[in-house]
Amino acid sequence: MTLHHTALGTTGSRVVFLHGLFGQGKNWTGVAKQLAERHRVLLVDLPHHGRSPWPDRFDFAGAAGDVLATVSAAGGDEPITLVGHSLGGKVAMVLALLHPERVERLCVADISPVTYPESREFPGYIAAMRDLDLTRVVHRADADRLLAPAVPDPTVRSFLLQNLRRDPTAASGWSWQVNLDVLDRDLAEISAWPEEELAGRAPYDGPVLWLAGGRSSYVLPDYEPAMDRWFPRNRKVTLKDTGHWLHSERPELFLEVLRRFLGD
């Protein structure tokens, strides 16, 4: 299955970006436009997100295969630099482990190859989005106001509401672009690391840049053994005073570190 994607740039090496849970490829547009001066950039909507298809379930090997098919259809089989944040970082790691010949280098943003507790914030976000009464929404400002009690952080609320679109086929005139039903049902798998699917796979031997938010808890010292096991050539960089969405909170610093990794 090929996924919705946007291409920028016409020359240079290929750099592919994968967004996090509830995100879309366009979340990377600011960073990608800067890189497109020297690279061919691809922004991919993961399955169940953005304008990509909704398969029956979410699983990492399937998502990695879809990304690889999309990359090949968009520009051939040459090795790529793969950049993934959060959920997209896990998909990127799995792709690199399953198809190391296709990934020249890997940048993982604020996620680790571990199973996380399901008690993190994402079940609450899904519940808040599903509970939002779309029949009361006339303008986007209405949705923002209605979602505020459940999601008080305006930055997070704005990010989630990027998934709300006008839909003339819906009774309310609005619908969610993200597949809340499947993501809710498969959240345990999304929170996990697919150890069984990767059994017997060799570690990825390419260079890996690990970017961590200094105020985030997704890349902790306790997770470093797993990082080193699967990705022995990793270099960790922590962006101070930065949370989980580090590429949107500190885009200039994120871009600077990524450019160094690319050799620009």
What does this structure look like?
The chain is built from 11 helices and 9 strands. It is an alpha/beta fold and 264 residues long. The strands form 2 sheets. The protein has a 7-stranded mixed β-sheet, with helices on both faces. The protein starts with a strand and ends with a helix. The mean pLDDT is 95.
Please outline the helices and strands:
Layout lengths: L4 E4 L5 E5 L10 H7 L4 E5 L15 H16 L4 E6 L1 H12 L4 E7 L12 H10 L8 H8 L6 H8 L2 E3 L7 E3 L3 H6 L1 H5 L16 E6 L10 H7 L3 E6 L6 H4 L1 H12 L2
Parallel strand pairs: 2-3, 2-4, 4-5, 5-8, 8-9
Antiparallel strand pairs: 1-3, 6-7
Helix pairs in contact: 1-11, 2-3
User: What distance lies between the first and last C-alpha atoms, to the nearest angstrom?
Assistant: 33 Å
How many strands appear in the DSSP assignment?
A: 9
Biggest β-sheet: strands ordered side by side in the sheet? 1-3-2-4-5-8-9
Taking pLDDT < 50 over at least 5 consecutive residues as the criterion, the unreliable ranges are none
Quaternary structure = single chain
pLDDT averaged residue by residue: 95
The major sheet is characterized as:
7 strands, mixed
Helix-strand sequence: EEHEHEHEHHHEEHHEHEHH
Using only C-alpha atoms, the radius of gyration works out to 18 Å
State the helix count.
11
Q: What is the share of helical residues? A: 25-40%
Strand content is 15-25%
Outline, from the CA principal axes? globular
What structural class do helix, strand and pairing data support?
A: alpha/beta
